[in-house]
Design goal:
alpha/beta; about 240 residues; globular; 10 strands
Length: about 240
């Protein structure tokens, strides 16, 4: 990793508003550029921004989203209508975008786990092979230094040469995650961090600590953005 650019937000509301604006900019640019993809992250952190943007997009012309593709950094291996599903949690935004089904790359959890991972990898590879650029790639950061559903060094070792893989999560659920090889196609991944107790993980990310999984996950990217609600840098 070459360069980390950190932007700190005094309040959660400021972070949410900035993220909604950034997503809207990426969606608008996708139409202007002839086509692009955005990668949404899971967890609770981005959901207020998704809802804010969804409310605005209801009044926007469909031309803004004609050439947009949406994919996910990871998802739990649960039914797509489960409350634990990142796809399900993002539905307000997806419904507002009203994209054709083929332009939303979700993890098909109705398939057996390993098959779902291979299926997701194949569709990610096809997207890249068509020359579709991932112009905005969002990631989260856990207090333990994980990102997407990459939790352990063993996950990174199994991920070599892959764009997506099946993982066992510490919460007892299985999941499917993008890999460092896929993230390498994103020029400047955007970590969006809120909550409390993440000060050590943020500091490790900023100093490029190779012992941290999230740092290894973005090592091939020339630039990394870190957006932080300042509460995340205080102890829980």
């Amino acid at each position: 990793m070459q360069k980390v650019q950190t932007r700190r937000f005094a309040t959660r509301a400021e972070l949410d508003a900035a993220l909604a604006a950034r997503l809207e900019q990426a969606i608008t640019a996708a139409a202007a550029s002839g086509g692009a993809a955005i990668m949404l992250s899971g967890g609770h952190t981005p959901l207020p921004a998704y809802r804010q943007l969804a409310a605005r997009l209801k009044h926007t012309g469909a031309a803004l989203r004609e050439k947009l593709h949406v994919l996910f950094s990871d998802d739990r291996y649960v039914p797509r209508d489960s409350e634990a599903s990142n796809y399900h949690a993002s539905r307000p935004l997806l419904d507002a975008l009203a994209l054709p089904e083929e332009q939303v790359l979700r993890v098909r959890t109705e398939l057996p786990l390993e098959e779902a991972a291979r299926d997701y990898e194949g569709r990610l590879r096809a997207l890249l092979d068509r020359g579709v650029a991932v112009t905005l790639g969002m990631l989260g950061l856990g207090a333990d230094g994980h990102t997407a559903s990459l939790f352990r060094s063993e996950d990174l070792a199994r991920a070599r040469g892959r764009l997506a893989l099946a993982v066992s999560r510490p919460d007892g659920l299985d999941g499917v995650s993008v890999t460092p090889d896929f993230i390498a196609h994103i020029p400047a991944p955007l970590f969006v961090i809120a909550g409390t107790g993440k000060e050590a993980a943020i500091a490790a990310l900023e100093r490029d600590d190779p012992a941290v999984v999230a740092v290894q996950a973005v090592q091939a990217c020339p630039r990394v953005e870190v957006w932080v609600e300042q509460a995340a840098e205080r102890g829980a």
